[in-house]
Specification:
It is a single chain. Helix content is 45%, strand content 15%. With 689 residues, the chain is of the alpha/beta class. Phosphoenolpyruvate binds next to strand 14 and helix 21.
Length: 689
């Protein structure tokens, strides 16, 4: 079926970007295809750029041709759009103004599309005093039913998970566990009974109490737990109030979701054929929603603070998931420049994707090993898909954070043996518990330390809490037979501590021998070098360790006395500080002299400029965040390592971070213009959130 009509551009501004955006949005709703002709030129009605290329000022006559089944309805709506001046007001202005918003980039990519609000505001709760026993019993029943309903809803989401996100099913299990947690469940029941208040009010009080407890703990993991507690309690409150959250089922055209916050269940519901991007007011790069949304491979920006206020339904948006930027109602020039940027990014990404399973080998034949840093079992699969040649850092804290009690040996063994199997024959470097004593939520009697970063944490905590430590070591050793494990102790500040940790490990090995349990007797035992004292005595430590891994996230913090989580001093967190480079070099040298492997697992390994610097310091093995692996591999495959090393000679003599960074960038641009002149990637200061 074909429909042809002549349409006149009657709005003041002519067929500019916003008008073209409306046409493209409309074209997305219909199956039929639209062609617009002016004079001898024809444009594709599904491309903003193509429509703009017709250059139609006010008064232009255009021939619209629509081919396909629903051509007539499409044409009627298109004609209405032209007659309605594409929503332009009398003064020739569009109501909305261009705005630029900044948030945290979570999932990369660039998309241009229409905003769709998803109402995720908090359910209103009212205080009600219960008058008698009957009302109290009734409220208790209502609460229990609302919780049961929430459990069923979560189960339903779990069973409908798409392949993309199914690896994150455990996050929904965490939600079910939170629903049963006594701090939430029992304490709410207790409040209803004792304080004689309605269930919603009682639940809110319990959640506030948990907030209070967690607020004292400055830690990312805990922050994530709080997100989960909030989203679980919100679900119960909705069930109590009998309200249905705004669903994504009705979305039929391509949209960018704008919401106050989203839960992991929301992410499960997302259909990427309609949802092309996500924006939220709240959230951090490490929230569960953020981690899961990365798997959807659509641009996501969180923490925009006022996105739901500033963006109206239907607004045209540009989402730059690389830079964490959102442009609301962009002008035509901005759209054209982002269309171009998007094309270049997509081209670049497919070039990167093509090499991610090829070895990270430089053009002059040096083999570099690229592994992944992960925090959950599910990330191992994503890491391998992204081309990781093993797991260079498995942070094992997660299982200690989701439950109130310490996990038992079987729970740990189950997790560790799965990861061993999943990654074999490639290695998994498993780090023992790196946790601060005040992160321990086991009995909620948090003993607050004034200076947790310098306190009883990590290996110090483990050497104090032998039972906890030995349970983990037993689980690691038992799981070691299923794959290729390396064991690493974090926060080692001196030889005595390392030998003590090894002594305990040997004791655990002996007890396994007594029990006749198999384990890898040759398991390499290494040190996470992240304290300046350890870099100073790297030559001594190297005589007793099988490998070193340099943890620059903490090493920079301790070397420069900069709290890595304190935004007031974030500008002083300098990965290119000459002292940091010298420390790294010292460790590499000590390791090489003793013939042990030295790798680096700090976040800086995901930064192209840092990688060049680190290669020039002699490092050949890196472990980095999963998302950066393809880019880094691609870059390494373009590098003539000999020339890089020659070009960066003298780097250790430079006096300031700025001089180092400028020096490396200059060399990088001349050696690898394709990577470093490419402005589709925004280089974030490595190590910062
Ligand atoms: C580090 O400190 O560099 C590191 C890799 O560990 P984390 O970020 O877990 O402290
Ligand atoms: Mg560390």
């Amino acid at each position: 079926m074909e429909e042809i009509r002549s349409l006149k551009v009657i709005n003041e501004l002519g067929m500019h970007a916003r008008a073209a955006g409306h046409i493209v949005g409309l074209a997305g709703k219909y199956k039929a295809k639209l062609f617009l002709r002016k004079d001898a030129r024809e444009a594709d009605g599904s491309s903003i750029l193509s429509i703009l290329s017709l250059a139609c000022p006010k008064g232009s006559e255009i021939e619209a041709r629509i081919v396909g089944k629903d051509a007539k309805e499409f044409m009627d709506e298109l004609e209405g759009l032209f007659k309605n001046k594409f929503g332009e007001t009398a003064g020739g202005h569009y109501r909305p103004r261009k705005k630029i918003m900044k948030g945290f980039p979570v999932s990369p990519g660039i998309i241009i599309g229409k905003a769709h609000h998803l109402d995720r505001f908090k359910t209103q709760i009212f205080h009600r005093k219960l008058l008698n026993r009957k009302e109290v019993d009734g409220e208790i029943d209502r609460f229990k039913q609302a919780v049961d309903m929430a459990k069923e809803q979560i189960q339903k989401f779990k069973s409908s998970m798409s392949e993309q996100v199914e690896g994150y099913a455990f996050l929904l299990d965490t939600h079910s566990m939170i629903l049963e947690d006594s701090l939430l469940f029992d304490s709410t029941l207790k409040r209803i009974r004792k304080e004689k208040i309605n269930a919603g009010w009682a639940l809110e009080k319990s959640v506030n109490k948990i907030h209070q407890l967690f607020r004292q703990i400055e830690d990312d993991y805990i922050g994530r737990r709080m997100d989960d507690v909030d989203s679980v309690s919100e679900r119960v409150l909705q069930n109590l109030a009998g309200v249905q959250p705004d669903s994504m089922e009705g979305i039929k055209e391509e949209v960018i979701i704008v919401a106050h916050s989203l839960s992991p269940c929301d992410i499960v519901e997302i259909n990427v054929s309609n949802v092309t991007g996500i924006l939220t007011d709240v959230g951090s790069r490490t929230s569960h929603m953020a981690i899961m949304s990365e798997a959807l491979e659509i641009p996501v920006v969180v923490g925009l603070e006022s996105a739901t206020d500033m963006i109206l339904d239907g607004d045209l948006l540009i989402v730059d998931g690389n830079a964490g930027e959102v442009i609301v109602n962009p002008d035509p020039d901005t759209i054209i420049s982002y269309e171009d940027r998007k094309k270049r990014y997509n081209r670049y990404k497919s070039a990167i994707d093509r090499v991610r399973h090829l070895p990270a080998e430089t053009v002059d034949g040096y083999k570099i090993r690229i592994q992944a840093n992960i925090e959950f079992l599910a990330e191992a699969k994503v890491a391998i898909e992204n081309g990781a040649e093993g797991i260079g850092l498995y942070r094992t804290e997660y299982l200690y954070m989701i439950k109130r009690d310490f996990p038992d040996e079987e729970t740990l063994f189950d997790d560790y043996s799965q990861i061993a199997r999943m990654v074999a024959p490639n290695p998994v470097t498993i780090r023992t518990l790196d946790i601060a004593s005040d992160k321990m939520v086991s009995d909620m009697q948090t003993s607050r330390e004034d200076n947790p970063a310098l306190g009883l944490r990590s290996i110090r905590f483990c050497l104090n809490e032998r039972k906890v430590f030995k349970t983990q070591l037993r689980a690691i050793l038992r799981a070691s037979v299923y794959g290729n494990f390396r064991l690493m102790f974090p926060m080692i500040s001196g030889l005595g501590q390392f030998l003590e940790a090894k002594r305990i490990l040997k004791g655990v090995m002996r007890s396994l021998d007594r029990d006749g349990v198999e384990y890898d007797r040759e398991i390499p035992i290494g040190i996470l070098i992240e304290i300046p004292s350890a870099t100073s005595i790297a030559d001594i430590l190297a005589k007793h360790a099988d490998f070193f891994s340099i943890g620059t996230n903490d090493l920079i913090q301790y070397a420069l006395a900069i709290d890595r989580d304190n935004e007031h001093v974030a500008h002083l967190y300098e990965p290119f500080h000459p002292a940091v480079l010298r420390m790294i070099h010292q460790v590499v040298k000590a390791g090489n002299e003793e013939g042990i492997e030295v790798s680096l697992c700090g976040e800086i390994a995901g930064d192209p400029l840092s990688i060049l610097t680190l290669l020039s310091l002699g490092l050949r093995e890196f472990s980095l965040n999963v998302g950066s692996i393809p880019l880094i591999k691609k870059m390494i495959r373009m590098i003539p390592l000999g020339k890089v090393a020659d070009g960066l000679t003298g780097i250790l003599e430079l006096p300031t971070s700025k001089k180092v960074e400028d020096f490396v960038l200059r060399r990088a641009k001349s050696l690898l213009p394709d990577v470093f002149e490419e402005d589709v990637f925004t280089y974030r200061p490595p190590g910062t959130a």
